[in-house]
Amino acid sequence: MDPSMGQERRTPVTPSSSSRYNRRRSSGSRDERYRSDVHTEAVQAALAKHKERKMAVPMPSKRRSLVVQTSMDAYTPPDTSSGSEGEGQGDEDVGDGEEEDGGGGGGTSSSREGSISMEHWISRAVHSSTTTTSSTASSSSSSTRSGGSGAAAGRLADVLAQHHLKNHSAPPDVTGCTNNTANTTADGIQVERGPPGGGGGSAAQRQTPKYGNAELMETGDGVPVSSRVSAKIQQLVNTLKRPKRPPLREFFVDDFEELLEVQQPDPNLPKAEGAQMAAMRGEQLGVVTNWPPSLEAALQRWGTISPKAPCLTTMDTNGKPLYVLTYGKLWSRSVKVAYNLLHKLGTKQEPLVRPGDRVALVFPNNDPGAFMTAFYGCLLAEVVPVPIEVPLTRKDAGSQQIGFLLGSCGVTVALTSDACHKGLPKTPTGEIPQFKGWPKVLWFVPESKHLSKPPRDWFPQIKDANQDTAYIEYKTCKDGGVLGVTVTRTAMLTHCQALTQSCSYTEAETIVNVLDFKKDVGLWHAVLTSVMNMMHVVSIPYALMKVNPLSWIQKVCQFKAKVACVKSRDMHWALVAHRDQRDVNLSSLRMLVVADGSNPWSISSCDAFLNVFQTKGLRPEVICPCASSPEALTVAIRRPLEEGATPPSRGVLSMPGLSHGVIRVDSEEKLSVLTLQDVGSVMPGALMCVVKVEGVPQLCKTDEIGEMCVCTVATGTSYYGLAGMTKNTFEVFPVSNNGTPISEFPFTRTGLLGFIGPAGLIFVAGKMDGLMVVGGRRHNADDIVATALAVEPMKFVYRGRIAVFSITVLHDERIVVVAEQRPDSTEEDSFQWMSRVLQAIDSIHQVGVYCLALVPSNTLPKTPLGGIHLSEAKQLFLEGALHPCNVLMCPHTCVTNLPKPRQKQPEIGPASVMVGNLVSGKRIAQASGRDLGQIEDNDQARKFLFLSEVLQWRAQTTPDHVLYTLLNSRGAIASSLTCVQLHKRAEKIAAVLSERGHLQDGDHVALVYPPGIDLIAAFYGCLYAGCVPITVRPPHPQNIATTLPTVKMIVEVSRSVCVMTTQLICKLLRSKEALAAVDLRTWPPVIDTDDLPKKKPPLLYKPSNPDTLAYLDFSVSTTGMLAGVKMSHTATSAFCRSIKLQCELYPSREVAICLDPYCGLGFVLWCLCSVYSGHQSILIPPSELEVNPALWLSAVSQYKVRDTFCSYSVMELCTKGLGLQTDSLKSRGVDLSRVRTCVVVAEERPRIALTQSFSKLFKDLGLHPRAVSTSFGCRVNLAICLQGTSGPDPTTVFVDMRALRHDRVRLVERGSPHSLPLMESGKILPGVRIIIANPETKGPMGESHLGEIWVHSGHNASGYFTVYGDEVLQSDHFSSRLSFGDTQTVWARTGYLGFLRRTELTDASGERHDALYVVGALEEAMELRGMRYHPIDIETSVIRTHKSITECAVFTWTNLLVVVVELDGSEHEALDLVPLVTNVVLEEHYLIVGVVVVVDIGVIPINSRGEKQRMHLRDGFLADQLDPIYVAYNM
Predict the structure, then answer these.
(1) 854 pairs with which residues across the strands?
(2) Which residue, 784, 830, 696, is CA-closest to 59?
(3) Band of residue 261 on the pLDDT scale cut at 50, 70, 90
(4) Which secondary structure element, helix H or strand E, spans residue 1012, and what is its range?
(5) DSSP assignments along 1424-1455, one per residue
């Protein structure tokens, strides 16, 4: 499971490490441990190439609390001298001449040997070794490359693998181009290259940059990285400007449908050209006369004729023998287990286990004896054992899937050892709980003391091997699912025979086993074949290996073992630890089975191991790599050599070739090669062929990589209970080119990728499970692990634990690398290492890594034997639960299949558009509310031109009618105003203004009041005095520093000559905090209106011209612009009348208002409408809801209100704050069934998700879902739409989000992919006309086309009020005309995109109803890749990706998309969000995120309407004021 152990600690030499370890040794004992790693050198050379390109990736920013600092003393690396290549520099010089001869000799002989039926260059790629002599025993064979291309030496030196009979030299150095002697290659390029063996002298080693080097961390402009965010972004932009690798043919033609384009194969790619590869037959399986007819028979034979012979010796964790199990004991105990299984479980009538049933074997790795006894007991009872791992906890990584396997196999009994049974988790009553996903099982301990003795006359029936299932081996798939491979008794026996023949096993040999004995090679050699041949197994538990990695070598010496079964990591660990050992002698070994020898990276461990232990008696021919898979059992194994047999061979293949599935000798690109070792020949009695990976199982060509298939008795026969998958794997009929099957017998797929080389040797290049297809090219996870590990492994990766997998994002697989970081590495180190790994993988595999993550040591999910649980790691990554401590995403480099950027079409003239409209019969998109002139109603207020006159009229006719009631946070009435009270207070305020303020007509007065009654009185006081009021939100007492400057700015920009406010706010303005923010002397006079004089003004101001200013409306837009608009008396009266008609407001009505009364419709409803229409307004300040979230809804219920208005922030407060309280509200009698309209006042696209969840939540309190709707207003017209009382319900349509980006509207079905729900923004108000126009050409648009909403109405504002007199903007926004069609009407441009659609519904007048859908503000929209994106769409996607993201805001900076997310969770989750955010934005919006910023809750600024202030956020980010938890710069 852990391919990485082999390459774990080979550090390339950096100048620092070589000097540190420069203790010279005499040349004889030069430490050759790591010298053979071709790959490390290739990686170093690749990185050296990048040295010139300065490291230009901006480091992520992290909050201090996230940087875990551990002291160096806390962690001692296991092997400090790993920089040993630096030792003994230049001790040996190699004679160049001899090397060349060696090269030449090798070349010619290899082209002679082994290429009889092969393509000529296959034999170049893979050739048998040659024998040559060399003057220096330990010299490396060099890769010579002479100028003459004709010379065989020149062609073959690169791939030459020498084999000295006395000394196994290192494999060739494939990184160089020339020797020092041949300094000029054919092309005349000068390359300096030291002798490969010569220590730190080679180019690759010299150029490796030091760590923590300041030069590396400068940006393109030489700005040090730490300077500031904006510098980092600049740096990121510079990096991204670099030419990338050419993009693939793009996947999409981004038109309406965005069709996926099939990738056209590039004609220049390497293609297989060889002949069809023939199937390869193994030797005959020779039946030896005394081979037992079944394994049980063998056990019976040895148990009776040599009961004292040792079968198994187990070690404890100190390496002392724990117990010896003899064949006699194994036989008698197994019989006892068999008897008890069949007769002592359940009752006599109803036994729990019958022959053929499946039982689970749950044994720990330190107890092979108990396992063997139970396994053979099952075989004797004809019960099918299913060996599985011990579930450590209830939620163990893979144990849930194992539970599914047990369930599907119908397992009801689990056998386990005494110790294990004691260690399983227990409930308080002492029972073993049911594990997650497991069936209910009976736990049974088959140890002698718990078993009853079988009666004398009872014997197990010993049959010959038959087609019954012998055992089921579990297999974990790529996706984490667990399958059970069934092996029949015949297959099991035949497999043991084939292994016995291949490995020449004989009776009583000793075999040392380090592997897991429950499955795979460990089970086959150390439990099954060993018993067939009466061998003695010495079992080394994993726990002992952890304590003493040399234990297996010591046991080989101690027991003079003939055979050892290990994995490459066991060899590797032994290397690391071997220095303390003197008396190691491995001459007894005749066979060292390397179980993962088919992993291409085991070769370096094998070489390094041989280099070191050759002096201790290890013979080169002893190393026997084998290839196996759960389905096909042993696929191939290298035989221990007899004299004169073919020596093992090496293949040096081009990695780019492999990625296209073809075998090529590495020629052009020296660095990307894969060196393979053969895994011997086909098993006795088997037929092997290689078939294409995809599609029909057609035979491959000789130079093609495919999946190996075998036809033999000795394979698994099915996946238990899965007929379909079984057919695809175990019943394959390979066909030749003409489509005829090559055999009548079915083949089994092995899951291994490779080819059959010269002389019938098998080469494995990877596993199907590790295959990742990126951009049509195949890469193997193991190869990428090796490359990552070759980049300074010791310094960095904890115990070499790296996981590589692919995830699918945007129609292609993307590579993810996750490594465990050493506890002592610094931030700088990690980041350096990450960027070097990216460069190395890019150079060697020519593939980009999508995400590289580092997790703290020991945190990747483990398999029971300590490997990495890949599928679990992938699952955690995708769920955002991996908690990395460093993340580097590179979507810019990897994602080459984005849709093409959109090219805008040239503008079309008006005529053609008109014709187009007429031809297609489209209506021009226009609509209007009811005509104000036509409506006859007894509206008394219409007689008056000015609101001040309406108030005086009401004070005379209905003096005691209550107009306003203000509630406090407890829901009690804080104060109220009748018509006459309001009139009297307004008079007094007017008097104060003329006396204290000496104001002239038309002077501007700023009203700085909290939401309430004072504000209303002050407003009418200004009208009475002939002044122009401006309502301003007061500064927030807790946040004066940021809120007071805004107040001051509005006061200045509006040219207010005085400020009216309350005593409390007066004090606040003089407080210390306020003085620090704004100098008191710069304020105009401040008048407090708390104590008003008793007198009224001499006479009230009578305005004469209704087109003069009534008031100014200031508001800060979401983009952070402060804009004030002028409202005339005419517009104000028209506005009030329009709302009165739409909402049917009369003096008898009551309306509840929970809005901020400072601008827009909120102000009009709070201050103006009641005076005009005479209805009572119940005022609820939104700030009071923070104290009592139920205030608004309780008031609506208590006052039996039919119409209420709120903002999105209020709705959100109720949804979040009252979500769990609906029942208690109901019991308190809150009833919302009378509500006819509940309108959200907004200046944005309706937030349909919020309104729907609000309706759903309060449905229980009687709220009718059709009552909830939204309004729409903007700066040029404060209310365009408002869902009134009559008229059809608001409609919702679903549009295609991709079409919207192209400014098109395409209606789709609900739930279709990329659909976006849009809700109508309420009915168009009376007196309002709307048209949709093209924002660029100003031509009218057709219906259902996206364009800018233009409005013509009596209550349009009359212009911006600015100090700067920006006339162009003024005329453009407030008095635009269409470029053709109706060019007379003057329109105001709202700055919002939307579309009109005629619905099937009819409105009150019987007309078909036109619905207006608002999509978003033009100034908020982001132009990216030629398309128009609305931030809210991206934010919605991001918020959905992870439960901890509570809020999100996006903005662009220099064409980079910046995503800011608020994290509700621990800071350690921050880095989990980076990949998820990047994925979802790519997948749903085809955009690459440039920067991901993770911040605390509440950092994203939100205005009073509940809209995000994205530009404030952007400014804060660029000025480094957000205090982010983490900032990731995606590459």
Answers:
(1) 819, 886
(2) 830
(3) very low
(4) none
(5) ETTEEE-HHHHHHHHHHH-TTEEEEEEEEETT
- Return d(Cα 594, Cα 564) in angstroms, integer: 9
Out of 305-309, 478-482, 600-604, least confident range: 600-604
Closest listed residue to residue 53, CA positions, set 213, 220, 193, 246: 220
Decide if 689 contacts 764 (C-beta within 8 A).
no
Please answer whether residues 622 and 640 qualify as being in contact, where contact means their C-beta atoms are separated by less than 8 angstroms.
yes
The residue among 808, 853, 501, 508 whose CA lies nearest residue 680 is 501
Contacts of 449 (CB under 8 A, 6+ apart): none
Residue 1368 pLDDT level (bands cut at 50, 70, 90): low
**Lookup result for tokens 């018509």:** 979
In 791-848, alpha helices (H): 793-796, 827-845
Calpha distance 777→759 (Å, rounded): 29
Between 234 and 1283, where is the model more confident?
Answer: 1283
How do strand 812-821 and strand 849-856 relate by DSSP bridges?
A: parallel
Find, among 1260, 1294, 1280, the residue nearest to 1329 by Cα. 1280
pLDDT at 425: 83
DSSP annotation string for 501-559 = HHHT--TT-EEEE-S-TTSHHHHIIIIIIHHHTT-EEEE--HHHHHH-TTHHHHHHHHH
Phi, psi of 487, deg, nearest 5 = -120, 125
Mean pLDDT of 70-88: 33
Q: How far apart are CA 469 and CA 487, in angstroms?
A: 6
Angstrom distance (rounded) from CA 1513 to CA 768: 48
Strands 1176-1179 and 962-967: parallel
Residue 66's nearest CA partner among 1091, 887, 1001, 1154 is 887
Q: Are 330 and 295 in contact (CB under 8 A)?
A: no
Q: Where are the alpha helices (DSSP H) in 144-184?
A: 152-156
Q: To which residue do tokens 């002679």 refer?
A: 112
Rounded-to-integer distance, Cα 6 and Cα 677, Å:
15
Give me the phi and psi of 1048, to 5 degrees please.
Answer: -60, -40
Q: Detail the DSSP E strand segments found in 1367-1406.
A: 1388-1402
Task: Give the closest residue to 754 by CA, choosing from 765, 744, 745.
Answer: 765
Residues 1209, 1506: contact at Cβ < 8 Å? yes
Task: Kindly give the interhelix angle for 295-305 and 489-503, rounded to the nearest 10 degrees.
Answer: 60
SS3 state of residue 1262: coil
CA pair distance 1002, 963, nearest whole angstrom: 27
How far is the C-alpha of 1362 from the C-alpha of 350, rounded, in Å?
94
DSSP 8-state code for residue 265: P
Q: What is the pLDDT at residue 850?
A: 93
Q: What is the pLDDT of residues 1321-1358, one digit of tens each?
A: 888 888 899 999 998 888 898 887 889 999 999 888 88
pLDDT value, residue 580: 62
Got the DSSP string for 1054-1110? TTEEEEEE-HHHHHHHHSHHHHHHS-GGGSPPEEE-SS--S---SS------TTSEE
Tens-digit pLDDT profile for residues 1013-1057: 999 999 999 998 889 999 999 988 888 888 888 888 888 888 888
- Tell me if 1181 sits within 8 A of 1011, measured CB to CB: yes
- Neighbouring CB atoms inside 10 A of 1073's CB total 14
Flag whether pLDDT at 1154 surpasses 90. yes
| Spatial separation of the C-alpha atoms in residues 1193 and 1189, rounded to whole Å | 8
CB atoms within 10 A of CB 327: 25
